[in-house]
Specification:
Helix content: 25-40%
Strand content: 25-35%
Largest sheet: 7 strands, mixed
Number of strands: 17
Radius of gyration: 21 Å
Number of helices: 7
Low-confidence stretches: none
Structural class: alpha/beta
Shape: elongated
Length: about 325
């Protein structure tokens, strides 16, 4: 451990739309924010090729371009953007203590958590390959469904989110095949019934995904296994959507911050405040409903404003 302790007014943990937006607002309020980018600088959007639903970019923008722009904007107003990630915290007393890369200790008057969430994937080599090429694997139908208009797609999942995403895709795509890995849905009855009633959704219960098929660059189909008959077969598809959940990146906060049963931070309704005074949250670390760049940016703004007001109340 380094003996040198750094003191900051506002520490932002994590990048992405929430972190960078919080940094823009905090910097403009003379809070001299320090932002650590985390293990995935720019967050989940850096794995997205095209973002077409971000306001003000009528031709669309790539995820990495968007994050570079937000970072530069934050730096323009004086944000100190750094490499590294938080590995330990102590929020038991003020100032709030955060350790970076297990070595550097920071004492912060305010902390904004924007560590996001990580989509869960099946872990198939072929799935990961086409996720990296941007050729047809996605964990967000609302983000990417538009690119598969009038095409055939496959979605894996059995919960409410999977049903919602299948329903969303059914309005855009010619055919949606839903692979449910067990013999029953985990979704609520009303959501289960909704997808069952949609004509262009085919539901295959008790089926596993064996492989995502393609030409090396783009997806052309999915090999599935009927677990009842043990037969493999191919489903033609240009898109493969994974809707088996997200894991919020909040483990290091669990001893101090109130989390829900799946690990999302519980904020005070209508604000970015957590149960710890001076610690705020923005983005997907607290949002299991919308999970969009624009909503993350909005809550990043809220976190900076709440942090500014908190500091003002202390003086």
């Amino acid at each position: 451990m380094s003996n040198e302790i750094e003191k900051v007014k506002c520490l932002i943990i994590g990048s992405g739309p929430a972190g960078y937006t919080a940094a823009i607002y905090a910097a403009r309020a003379n809070m001299n924010p320090v932002l650590y980018q985390g293990t995935q600088p720019g967050g989940q959007l850096t794995t997205t090729n095209e973002v077409e639903n971000w306001p003000g970019n009528p031709e669309g923008i790539t995820g990495p371009e968007m994050m570079i722009g937000l970072q530069k904007q934050a730096q323009r107003f004086g944000t100190d953007v750094r490499d590294g990630w938080a590995t330990k915290v102590d929020f038991s007393a003020e100032p709030h203590k955060v350790w970076i890369n297990d070595t550097k200790e920071i004492h912060a008057d305010t902390v904004i958590i924007s560590t996001g969430a990580t989509a869960k994937y099946l872990g198939l080599p072929s799935e990961q390959h086409y996720l990296q090429t941007g050729g047809g694997v996605s964990a967000c139908a609302i983000c990417d469904g538009f690119f598969y208009r009038n095409q055939e797609v496959v979605i894996v999942g059995a919960g409410d989110s999977a049903c919602e995403e299948a329903h969303y895709l059914s309005k855009l795509c010619k055919k949606v095949t839903m692979l449910v890995r067990s013999e029953k849905f985990r979704a609520s009855k009303i959501m289960e019934q909704r997808v069952k009633n949609i004509e262009n959704i085919t539901i295959l219960m008790n089926h596993d995904t064996v492989e995502v098929l393609g030409d090396g660059q783009v997806v052309t189909g999915v090999k599935a296994k009927n677990k009842t008959t043990n037969e493999d077969f191919e489903i033609p598809a240009t898109g493969f959507f994974v809707a088996i959940g997200h894991k919020p990146n909040t483990d290091i906060f669990a001893d101090y911050i109130t989390l829900d049963e799946t690990g999302y931070i519980i904020n005070v309704p209508g604000s970015s405040k957590t149960n710890v005074p001076g610690v705020f949250v923005g983005g997907d670390a607290a949002d299991h409903v919308y999970r969009q760049a624009i909503t993350a940016a909005g809550t990043g703004c809220m976190a900076a404003l709440d942090a500014e007001r908190y500091l003002a109340s202390k003086h």
